[in-house]
Amino acid sequence: MTDTISGDSFTEDGIAESEATPRVRRRMSPIVPAQNVVGRALVSVIAIMTFLSCLTLGAVTLVRDTATVWESQISREATIQIKPQDGMDMEAALESASLIARGFPGITGARIVDREATSRLLEPWLGSGLNIDELPVPRLIVVTINEDYPPNFQRLREAIVAEVPQASLDDHRTWVDRLVTMARTTVAIGMAALVLMLAATILSVVFATRGAMAGNGHIIEVLHFVGAEGRFIAREFRRHFLATGMKGAAAGGVAAILVFLVVSFWSARNLATPEADQATALFGNFAIGLSGYGGVALIVLLIGALTAATSHVTVVTYLTDIENRQTDAG
Fold first, then answer.
1. Global pTM?
2. Cα–Cα nearest to 60, from 178, 31, 12, 68
3. How many other CB atoms sit within 10 Å of the CB of residue 97?
4. Which residues touch 77 (CB under 8 Å, ≥6 apart)?
5. What letter would DSSP give residue 16?
6. Which residue ranges in the chain fall short of pLDDT 50?
7. CA pair distance 234, 146, nearest whole angstrom
8. For residue 241, which of 40, 122, 257, 311 is within the disulfide window of CB 3.0 to 4.6 Å?
């Protein structure tokens, strides 16, 4: 049984129904739509740009590490090449040149490249099953150098040639210097491409933010006119685009890491092939290491932060334009 007094309904215990029945709070819709076409497209764009940025960073890391290895090899190794000649005992010549190199000051060791290894080096050009005794193929001796006390290469060259006239000493400095220069140029180009990709990501966020504001401009203006602070509105946009940016950046970063792992796994499984030997000589084992994966994580965080910061600046600029138009109208 209920009584009505002054328009209020009461229960039998004398409690107003408005107090007895809990109020149903209406859920407020966000200023920025959680999911729309612009949001999904922006996630895809950020994922693609992050993926390409991470691949660029990984390639730059590989080239930089390889250039470092090349530079270190200049001070660690040299090569003695002996060309075949009619009536020449190649094995005796190899042993003689190897003994001279081992006894020379500044040399810590000399290793003769055997027949099997020589055949493998020539397989990409001459095919498998090669008998190097039937062809005038030069033989090599890899000389290990004392990095702290390197030898006098000119005197070493003269001593070897005096004993084995068909021999020549190559310290690799000329071609390695060229490769290192090329690697450094590639690193510079890769870093420039990375900066351009980040710039393109920022521009994409700017356009997406303005698109979201165009669809919700009336809400922003109403909130602004009724007294909502600009930092509140900007915070809502920043929070939304931070989540959007991190979602897309994380997807692109994970995809890039998977590519690196697959390529590294393939390289490890094909180490015995001549093609893999040549690729490994140029680019290492295709493993970017902890520094590379750390760089991928840094790019993901950087793109997420840039997305949030860009949306914040765009919203603040938009609100400033509203205030300027209001001041001019007044």
1. 0.62
2. 68
3. 26
4. 142, 143, 144, 145, 172
5. B
6. 1-24
7. 63
8. 311
